[in-house]
Amino acid sequence: MKKFYCLLPIAYCLLPASTTNFTTQIELLYNFDRNKFHFELTMLNKQIIKDTSRLPFRSPWFIIIIFSALGLIGILNHSMWRDELNPWLIVRDSESLGDLIANIRYEGHPILWYFSLALLRKIIDNPIIMQIFHLAITVVSVTIFCLYSPFNYQQKFLFSFGFFPFYEYLLISRNYAFSMLFIFAFCTIFSTRKITYAYLAILLGLLANSSAYGLLVSFSLSLTLLAEFCFDSEHRQQYFSQSQKYDLFLSIIIIIFSFILSIYIITPPTDSYLYGGLNNGWLMQLDIRHLLRSIGRIFGGYLLIIPQHKRWLDLIVCAIIALFIVILTLIKLSKKPVALFFYIIGNCVIFAFTYLRFTGMPRHFGHFYLVLIAALWLGSYYQESIVLLNKFSIRPNSITFVQKWHHIALMLILYVQFGGGIYSFSRDLFVPFSASRETSQYIQEAKLDNEFIVASRDANMAPLSGYLNRKFYYPELKKMGSFTLFKKGRQDVEQTEILNQINSLLKNQDEQKKILLILNQKLNVNRNDLKIVPIKDFQRNWVDSERYYLYWVDEA
Known about the structure:
The protein is mainly α. It has helices spanning 2-14, 20-30, 34-54, 60-77, 82-93, 97-104, 112-123, 128-148, 153-160, 163-168, 177-188, 198-208, 212-231, 233-242, 247-266, 288-303, 312-332, 337-356, 362-379, 387-391, 396-430, 436-445, 462-468, 495-508; strands at residues 453-456, 472-474, 479-481, 515-519, 530-538, 548-555. The protein starts with a helix and ends with a strand.
């Protein structure tokens, strides 16, 4: 009976107005008046709120634990593709350290990710350790964000399970996850600059050597530190009174050396015909459509939609929305000049690279999103200043109005990112990103992995070479290989040329032996002097260029 009595206030809340007779009977039955009833209800609600607040559901660790568990499930389920396994193969099959550095220069990426993989291979010579390492990077990044960022719990939750942390920089094992880690670590220990710049310099050096976009963000953060040091005399005096004698000099040396190393490595050799994947050169003239496309990358970084470059309406609408969000952020940060400076420089540097060189993919223009988050984070370290407001005659009530709209825009971005993250993560659980792992498993189960294998196109065969831990004969190279470097000596071939090379291989063999042919496109040519028998195809995947077709090829 006591248990039933405790449930009465809750039942009362759930009853519609038409049930007042019933509640009256209940009151008479238990001989208490309505005032007492409401008092009990209020006390019970307070107790529920108090007990609920003790639960871990609103703790940052709840986000971290759930993120880690789901991340482990997702990354072990993920089927890796060429951009993930090609670096692994470069590390695996480079003959020396000098050879490794020479090969990395064709990739258009700094050395940090490749050297990390080299260390991982000494532990376990299996690419799964690369995935576990990548998961650890992202989990640490989210942990730092949840524990130390100034955002509220809802914003932390939405960000953590958003598109970039929960999918792009989690499941796809590449060097871009380093950006999130080092940017967030920088924001976390930003206050140490009052005593030493060395820790920040090390993080900036690591960030600069993680990716080309990491270099751009690192450069922007370095300029921000420089601007504050030059124009904030109070900060400068405080630093000199507390820092070690050679701290500033050492920090500058670390940053300069890191920048030089990164620029040297990502500068492609003269015989690289894709220039690290950027084969269109520099755009040095004004192109309105391309300008709108580049602004659309800011929109894509925030709201995940890439406007159609052939449709002027899409480009214009998305550009207007992106600029509106940027302007809201600029005005919101106007009371925090240092954070404002970083937001301006960070966006300008990445945007300039986007327009002049490479419009990029989500993993690239996701750095616009990271710059937004970092700018808001850094702004929390500063007291509000009205210097800029007075200079531009901006009314305080206008700032309040803008802050309200900026909050709405930020929440919209976070909800869109959250939806994109949940959708993309879930899709990867059910639809393989690449057919590489399923194909490799079939080859191993059918005991075909020891056969002589001809594979084409070479750039799409890196996942199979990585999973099977062996080299193939690549018609593009006319020799055995694993990873792909777009340089002199490599040439794309048609299917007719592939069969010509197979015919030559069969004739030059001492013993008559058939060849296992793997293509990433269905074979649509034939030869009378070759017997070609289809084995199996694997077409269930997300990346259409990594569907695989297996054939036996023998002399007719």
